[in-house]
Amino acid sequence: MMRRRASLILLILVGLVGPWPLGLAPAAQTEVDRAAIVTPGSRSNEGWDQQGVDALVAIGEERGIEVDVVENAGYDDITPILRDLAADGADLIICHASGYQTVCPEFAEREGVPVVVTENPEAVTEGLVSDVETEAQEVAYLAGVMAALETSTGTVAVVASGEPPTWNYMTAGFAAGAKDTDPSVEVLYSVIGEAAYDDAPNARRTTETVIAAGADVIFGMGDGASFGMIQAIREHNAAVSQDEEVRFIDVIGDKSDSDVADFLLTSVLFDYTGAYNTFIDNLESGDFGSIYTMDLENEGVWLLEPPIEVSEETIEQVEAAEQAILEGEIDVPAIAEADELADFLEDLPEGDA
Amino acid sequence: MGHLTRDIAVPLLAVLGAALIGVSLLAATGHDPLAVGEAFGRRVLLRGAGIEESAVAMGPLLIAALAAWIAARVGLWNIGIDGQVIAGAIAAATLAPFLDTWPRESMWVAVTVVAIVAGALWALLPALLRAHAGINEIVTTIMMTYVAFSLGSWLVEGPLRDEALVTPVTVAIDVGRRLPRVFDTRIHLGVAAAVVIVLLTAAAARWTSPGILSRLVGESAPAAHRLGLPVERYVVVAFLVSGGVAALAGVAEVLATRGAVQGDWRPVLTLPAFAALFLARQNVLALLPAAFLLGMLAYASTVLPRATDLAPDFFPMLEGVLLILLAVERWQRPERAQAPAERSI
Amino acid sequence: MNVLETLLQASVLAAVPLMLAAVGEAIGQRSGLLNLGVEGVMLAGALVAFIAVETSGSFLAGLAAGALVGAVVGLLFGVASARMAASQIVLGLGIALAGQGATGFFFRERYGLTQPLLEPGMSRPISDLSEVAVVGPALFGHKWFVYAAWAGVFLIAATLRFTRAGLLLTATGDAPFATEAAGVDVTRVRVAAATAGQALAGLGGAALSIVEVGFFAPGMTVGIGFIAIALAMVGRQDPLRIALLALAFGVLRGLGPAIQLTEWRVRVEFLDMIPYIGVLVLVVVLGRRVRLPAALGVAYHREARP
């Protein structure tokens, strides 16, 4: 009798103490059967947020992992959400915004739950924090090559919803690609507003302005605000003859089966599947805590085949540029910071338009 | 109905009414109200983390509601709380890194004092325009908030930015130098301080002469003027104090929650602050349970959407419904002009 | 079109939702009602109008639906504040919050994870004239609703100034007791003003979603409703003055994209601030002349005559 009670107490003690050492022993191998993702915006914006969510959901189905999605989490402190996810047994939490780069590592440190952060290589910690980087400038460079070849006005434009690093990398890459292909091309750059991911009316005005300034290829980065750009172009195209139509280059999500397909020149697409699969593998093999860089080479970033008709010559030149980048013959600038980007754009050779 | 019964019955009925409307909406849109209710009970009420996080969420709400209360005491509407929060947070985040070598307690005090001044300064223009030119403070405070958002973004993007990180965020305070947590919870000292400040305000309103007289200013400025009270000075000072108090929510963001100000951070405290203020029927002590309830709603809006497949907007909508119900109940007396103060303390 | 022409044209278009909402708010203010819920009403109008166009294909149906939902909210606001003497400010803040939440909630309920876009379709009746340099597109290149909105504003201005109804409205806001003594039902005037005024705000929301951008997104008003309240006050409840202010506001907002195309390196955050600082400067300059009806925000009790 006595012994049985003692073992019962022992069992309870182990039960109470058990989870802690497990949680705090990060380097251990973890069977991942539940993973979560937190995004700042809506999972239906066909952009940044949706791309991350869709990738994890697809992986979940493929590998039999239960997936939790928290969307519209905004930029407030998301620790309560992280705790809730952890309480439900998440083995891995993906913090899908560069704005979560300080909250998530602090949470991982405190609670012992592995997290993935965005654009914060400094935070990488063995067993606790991995970082995903997107080197999208290379593919944006290819988009720039295509834009320079396809413009008939000699003016192309970049319209961005704000100046986060992901956007800045792509802006610089696009401008470099366009200028390397044809130095006489004018590259316009316009920012809608600080954190204006959802400011559709302003996105529309900004796009109308660059169209008026002569741009006929627009490289648009804006998640929710992208729809404002798209509507500006649609309305413009409805009013002009076919050879005056403006074409759009999109980022992150694939819109080629939507209303946009009529004038979608190409897209710089992100695919998180490779990154997330790697992180899950790492957790299961016990070597979590690394940087995964999505780029042209590992197909984390890739260029959409043009949904509209594009000349053979353009396709060949873009493919040649792709080869050159992969072989290291072209070095695409990687610029994260807004002021640096402004300097870079200012130093580009003058266009003719 | 006696005052006390009424003060308890009305908010309860309003909460019940809002809940009822919420349930009908859920049923009408094909959600299972029982499942949502069950998730609320299990995740918010019964989980330790739920209560704890609701208390954490209560902190800034309580501070913002107190700021609204102080302005309302003299008959003013501080609709610019969010801007004053930003002003406080930016001031705190600017100063804190320079005090790296100070003992952390002195750093907290210095940062808090400077932030309060910044918040008060952000309320200064609306206060002066109201007191000396009779210009309605509602418009000016709203405009000041938009300016604060843009100015704050620029500062975080530019001069205050932590160069080591790619995203715009100010230099963060080390976890070890932030406000300590109460026991081993996520509730930090700032939340406890907010509660103490509310209690002190209640005492000051009841037992100090400016506290007592301010109520007269709020209820009838002309009468206060006839009695020889410096009404304009009361108005300006109360509004500055309101802005200074609001800034404390920004201080908590920097000294406790995140240790820094992030470029895309937009506090949304003004509307919930007024929900708390009227739920409390403008009684300063009742702000405590009111802010806690709204803290629970705020927490619910972060965790329930996932558990119940509900758009997060559902919960702010309920808050709005609650405000509408409270407004309908709250009859104005004609002599109270624009004074929101009806009953305090 | 060149950049300047586009800037002007886009500003005129951008001014329309703001102008309608601000004029609507001004009608309410003249009668003595202050509604802080314009932002919520605009969002409701924007969503309902979008759904109407998306299902019926008719812009007219969308505009009517937007105005209707605004009128319903206005009626409820008017009855609650004028007849039941509810606190206008609290009610308005509640409407703002509930409107933001409800539109986000119902949009998601209806469209799930998709973002439908409307076809560009509304006709531009006099765009042949827009060849005129500089001001051509801004004056002649618009969709018909832009002209309808301006005509409406002129009509409202004339009504307020020259008709008995307009004078009664102003009298109700300035001196409710004297007006009542003259045999006018103050409560009814106020309810009617709230209904008409918020119908205009709902129409403004509709203009934003179906005329200006062609889709609905939660929170797409980004504060226009609050700016409308400010313009109604700064414009001293005069529709023409408000329309000009809304136009100026539109130009200031449109300047951002244009300035970025110049050589100047101005941070976009500074450009964002300009319109708000503009309103503040205007308030300071106008000073005491920012006139408000004497009884604004004050509930009217017949038996409590002073």
Summarize the topology:
The complex is a heterotrimer of chains A (353), B (345) and C (306).
Chain A (H helix, E strand, L loop, with lengths): L1 H16 L1 H6 L9 E5 L9 H16 L2 E5 L8 H9 L4 E4 L7 H9 L3 E4 L10 E6 L2 H14 L4 E6 L4 H17 L4 E6 L8 H13 L4 E5 L4 H14 L7 E6 L11 E7 L2 H13 L5 E4 L6 E3 L8 H15 L11 H10 L6
Parallel strand pairs in A: 1-2, 1-3, 3-4, 4-5, 5-11, 6-7, 6-8, 8-9, 9-10
Antiparallel strand pairs in A: 10-12
Chain B lengths: L2 H26 L4 H14 L1 H26 L7 H15 L8 H30 L3 H21 L31 H19 L1 H11 L1 H6 L4 H27 L12 H10 L7 H22 L5 H16 L16
Chain C lengths: L2 H28 L7 H19 L2 H25 L4 H24 L24 H5 L3 H19 L1 H11 L1 H6 L4 H28 L10 H11 L4 H22 L7 H19 L20
Helix pairs in contact in C: 1-6, 1-9, 1-10, 1-11, 2-3, 2-4, 2-9, 2-10, 3-9, 6-7, 10-11, 10-12, 11-12
Q: What is this entry, summarized?
A:
The complex is a heterotrimer of chains A (353), B (345) and C (306). With 345 residues, chain B is mostly helical.
> Any idea what the shape of chain A is?
globular
What's the count of strands of chain C? 0
Oligomer: heterotrimer
**Strand proportion of chain A:** 15-25%
Q: What integer is the average pLDDT of chain C?
A: 84
Percent helix range of chain C: over 70%
Strand order of the largest sheet of chain A: 2-1-3-4-5-11
Order of helices and strands of chain C: HHHHHHHHHHHH
Distance between the termini of chain A: 94 Å
Total strand segments of chain A: 12
Low-confidence runs of at least 5 consecutive residues of chain C: none
Share in helix of chain A:
40-55%
Tally of DSSP helical segments of chain C:
12
The computed structural class of chain C is mainly alpha
What pattern of helices and strands is seen along the backbone of chain A?
A: HHEHEHEHEEHEHEHEHEEHEEHH
